[in-house]
Amino acid sequence: MFQQREDAADRGYDRDFLGVEVAAPSLGERIVDDVRVWEGGTTLPYTHFSLVMSSTRRFAYWVAWNIDGGALKKLSRAKLAFVKDKRIPDSAQIGNELYASNRLDRGHLARRADVTWGSLESAQQANSDSFTYTNIAPQMDDFNQSSREGVWGRLEDALYDDVEIDNLRVSVMAGPVFHENDQLYRGVALPREFWKVLAYRRDGDLAVRAFLLSQALSPVLSVTALDEFRVYQVDLVELEERTGLAFPSRMHESGVPSAESVGPSGRRPLSTTAEIRW
Description:
By secondary structure, this protein is of the alpha+beta class. The protein has helices spanning about 110-115, 120-130, 140-145, 150-155, 155-160, 235-245, 250-255; strands at about 25, 45, 50-55, 60-70, 105-110, 135-140, 170-175, 185, 190, 195-200, 205-215, 230-235, 245.
């Protein structure tokens, strides 16, 4: 369970983690007035990650986290419970009322296994912090369960497998894409798209890679197929257009340009991690 610790040196996302500044996205004009404000500002810090909440949607606009691949610890999730963050009102975040008795999983935005690094105390706190509902978004079970999540769930692992990363350090950002016509379920508009950005250094140079996932939602949340989850490699301009977020110019300069638009008539979705342009 999240606990505020005034003396913690590893609170929140570190924009200088890679040795060059990789700032979290800012909110563009169309969404800036929707940010949830708390007594510490707009950004909620946790151990090794931070996030900004949407007031209307009650999910995170973005979550940003750091991964130290050389200091990761394998910790159990046993006995860890999903909890709401006491720093903001219960009504400002979606809890278990959405997930009971259906096929919706409580999907971590910042992966639990990504943030459990550092000292044992820090790793344990990060493990617990990751179960806060502010870090959770509804994902169909086919997509979220580790044995079936395909390319999306293996992005960070594939990066470590395929790229010589300086100092084994990666900074990641992710979140849902909010659409006005998202399906309503139990009074909650369910995101049907998610985005993720990986930033790392290779031979001293900053590299940024961006991805978009589309999940098909059945009207009764009971029937879906694995091939309804499509992952695309995109550029940051596309993500900005879809999300209303704004990424720093340095990240744009370090990304892979997207030659085609995302969609049924555009680029073919990724079928394996081998197709990723690192």
